[in-house]
Amino acid sequence: MTQAIATAPPTPCVAPKSALLRRRLMPLWVATFLQGVGFWVPVEKLFMSGIGFDAATIGVMAAAYAALVPVMEVLSGVLADRWSRRGVLMVAGVALLLSVFIGAISQNVVTYIVAALILGIYFAMYSGTVEAVVYDVVLEETGDGAEYERRIGWVRFVESVALVGSALAGGWIAAALSPRATYFLTLPFAALYLVALSRFCEPRLHRTTERTSLRDHLVVTYRAITDRGRLVPIAAATVMSAMILQAMYEFGPLWLVTLKAEAGYYGPFWALLVGMIGVGGLLASRLHLERPLSVAIVVLAMLAACLTMTTSRSLAALTAAMVALTLALVVIGIHLSQLMHDAVPSTIRTGVASGISAVSWLLFTPFALVFGAVSKYAGVYVSGWMITGAVALAGAALIWVQRHAVAVR
């Protein structure tokens, strides 16, 4: 009797029979938009400098939550695969709400680092989980994962609309009221995220097989990452591109601080940067990164952007370079996500994604510490060469993925 229950097909979601894939994903799109509203994000570095942060302590803060995230990533992956993916996303929402509130009331470096650590829990619970949810919904509704790259692209687009809109509004709010007010005004949107997510019909594919022990589950997840020849280059490229993208979001505004950009510039700058999440989401399925020429063009464009970041003193040129680099990294990330999900079963999908993400955070921890220290004592233009070196490695990994895929065929 127990075996029959364990292997029974999943109970279908209670939804109209005419519901299409888009309708199934609609609550997730709404929730994604709401969690993307962060009025405080574009002026965060401005706010932090006002309560005692400098380049070195920003690096310490980034390294602190980067050290926490890998542990939470592994936990979130196991919870999502063995318990509930929607439940893990709800936990992420609670962490986001708490982090923004503590940030809003912070008066010193230590308190704000606590807020950053809780934000790290949000990142760990959210990243990887939402991709696995989208892939499984596509698989349940269509029978294969061919639509994933386009559907996750639309999720990224919705997220970027929220990020861009709130970035522009955040700069205006900070100028009209104060940077601190941007935190308080973000709180209602974080709360509504939880409401919207409660309406999402969770996929059940990861529950269709017999439940194994936690130890066996972890062993299978680990072996999926390390033993599958196809997954190793994908994991390497994913780790490098994710680390660089995080560095861009964390340290990109330091170039503006160095060039003494006006406060009003931060909002549009951040809006352009996060807007590339949406543009990249729409372009990812159209750039065909399985082709050698496409890979070569993307890698050369990234290196050109890095060269600009290490030499130019023009705000316009620097902004264009950072936007181009961010766009390329988003496109690469979506392409690699498609390849990764194609390569693993649903029962360990979130665990594998979270494990790979955890490695990127582990790599980002020393990177952030060194980058912050070099920026403080030698300037951000010198530390920018660290990003250039990382991009070169990411490009090599992407070429490895493409060539390995050709060899497999």
Automatic annotation (TrEMBL):
GO terms for cellular component: plasma membrane. InterPro entries: MFS (IPR011701), MFS_DHA3_Transporter (IPR053160), MFS_dom (IPR020846), MFS_trans_sf (IPR036259). It is found in: Cell membrane. GO terms for molecular function: transmembrane transporter activity. Residues 1-407 form the Major facilitator superfamily (MFS) profile domain. It is a multi-pass membrane protein. It holds the Pfam family MFS_1. Coiled coil: none annotated. The chain crosses the membrane at residues 25-43, 55-75, 87-106, 112-134, 154-175, 181-201, 231-249, 269-285, 292-310, 316-336, 348-374, 380-401. The keyword Transmembrane applies. Keywords: Membrane, Transmembrane, Transmembrane helix. This is MFS transporter. It comes from Kribbella pittospori. The lineage of its organism: Bacteria, Bacillati, Actinomycetota, Actinomycetes, Propionibacteriales.
